[in-house]
Hints:
alpha/beta, Rossmann fold, globular, SDR_fam, Glucose 1-dehydrogenase, KR_dom, oxidoreductase
Amino acid sequence: MSKLKGKVAIVTGASKGIGAAIAKALAAEGAAVVVNYASSKAGADAVVAEIAKAGGKAVAVGGSVAEAATGQALVDAAIKHYGKLDILVNNAGVYEFAPLENITEEHYHKQFNTNVLGLLLTTQAAAKHLGEGASVINIGSLVSRIVPPATAVYTATKGAVDAITGVLSKELGPRKIRVNALNPGMVETEGTHAVGAIGGDFEQYALASTPLGRIGQPNDIASVAVFLASDDSYWLSGERLYAGGGAR
């Protein structure tokens, strides 16, 4: 029996990488999915097409989560197309690395607006429609624990995600809504290739500190997201689950 049959999910930043894998994994378990994208409509449409080909339901909705109107549009799409909302995956995120001397206001606001403000705005819009048994999954990062050099701003955003997860678990808990953080280690995606993290010194650093001996793949994270979205995790809230192959 599908773990998420009859459920409706929103996944932000789901046109590629981890978000796309999560959207497809939720759909494979029976959820109807609103696939959000900021810039890659083609990527989001491809995710929707793949879900439909497998017999699932999905719709793509564009917009930056850093704008309140996008969060509302995502929720409106879920209600319009599927009549309710059960799962929110706050996956949309950006990252840029810079040592202290190179940090700028633009560098700071770009990451905080998407990674932190975007999460808050989308959850604010979704919470009005989430009911008992609903699950909010915030995609954080292992960086909040291992604090690599030259990541002060990005790591700060993910530390904020951890803190917000705890706060919202207490705010939404009385309504029987669970809020958890899923914190991946290094994962091979279009993004990590684009910034040169794959195939370089950073990958070797990550491999050396990962006991399971490989870089993560998007499906490694998606399977944990399914667990957090399903009733299998009904007694977990306010938790941080690290999915990094044992990296510390």
